[in-house]
Amino acid sequence: MSLEKKFQNLFLQVSTRAALSSYFHVGKKDKIIADKAAVDSMRSQLNQIDMNGKIVIGEGELDEAPMLYIGENVGTKNGPELDIAVDPLEGTNFAANNLPGALSVIAVAEKGNLFNAPETYMNKIASNIKDSNVIDLDYSVKKNISNLADYKNKNPENITACLLDRPRHKDIINQLRELKVNIKFITDGDISGALLVTNDVFEVDIFLGIGGGPEGVLTASALDAFDCNFQGRFLFETDEDKLRAKKMGIEDLNKKYDINEIVSGDSIFCATGITTGDLVSGIEVNNDIFTSETLITHKSLGLRKNIKLTQKV
To answer: Could you tell me the fold of the domain covering 121-262?
Structure first.
């Protein structure tokens, strides 16, 4: 089964309105307020949609997040059962400090088709190559780069890898530099970082490293529509993390997940720019009119494009 086409515009409005709400707090040095504005707007919009929605990726668990928490039911209760993953404000620091790349993100699938990911880190790898045995999370950095260079008929120095600029990536960075690979660092926002593999215009061949697990699920939804490759492995560092994972039904804590295990069947993904970044332009307001840009995908319909909207505030 596939999601009805009408849901494209409905969820496009959800991320667009959330982005607009957060936009009014851009540059005010308060990431909590900027995030809350996006959360409040997104929840309000979701509750107007005829569906039985359940948040499977959200702002946290009930004791951590009063709204859009994991397990929260949203929608009018009249309509299909849907799994919903949200990141109302990806890049809270970007928004607070008026830096490029803040997004409002949502992914939707039919019930049971989006992985219910715990709030923990995930080791990830993404590329625009679907052929097996080229890129793999279990390969060494050297093997992945060598395979990628051979596959694309490039030298390693003509390969660009994107990853978060974090101390935990020191070993990966050193290996990439030894191989003379170009490195594109991002400071936050690994959803948008991973999505740079979707189009040659971004000149990113591979995304890798450790980031948020929930963001990995959102990323997989978009990459699936682009027919890209994504793999992830959750990293459970504490006994509390492990217990939470087992309560969510995760038995093998070391399992490597392929993209079709994270998102199955049809899905819709929307990422609306709050501040202008690589993927999309940010919100622009002129009197009572605003312009937005959203990367939207709908797998079953082959939709994957940027949509600009001009609407009343």
So the answer is: D-Maltodextrin-Binding Protein; domain 2 (3.40.190)
Cα 204 to Cα 159: distance, rounded to the nearest angstrom: 8
CA–CA gap between residue 112 and residue 249 (Å, rounded): 13
pLDDT score at 159: 98
Q: For 39-95, what is each residue's pLDDT tens digit?
A: 999 999 999 999 999 999 999 877 677 899 999 999 999 999 999 999 999 999 999
Which residue positions in the chain have pLDDT lower than 50?
A: none
Residue-wise pLDDT for 139-161, tens only, equals: 999 999 999 999 999 999 999 99
Alpha helices (H) in 126-237, listed in sequence order = 141-152, 170-178, 190-195, 213-225
> Percent helix, strand and coil across the chain, each rounded to 5?
35, 30, 35
User: Encoding tokens for residue 17?
Assistant: 């309105």
- In angstroms, rounded to a whole number, what is the distance separating the alpha carbons of residues 212 and 235? 10
Residues ≥6 apart with Cβ < 8 Å to 309: 12, 16, 291, 292, 293, 294
Using left for φ > 0, alpha for ψ between -120 and 50, and beta otherwise, residue 68 falls in: left
What is the reported pLDDT for 249? 86
In the DSSP assignment, the letter for residue 255 is P
Bridge partners of 73, per DSSP, are: 54
pLDDT of residue 110: 97
- pTM, two decimals, is 0.96
Domain covering 6-114+266-312 in this structure, CATH number = 3.30.540.10
Among 44, 77, 38, 76, which residue's Cα sits nearest to residue 59? 38
Domain locations in the chain as residue ranges: 6-114+266-312, 121-262
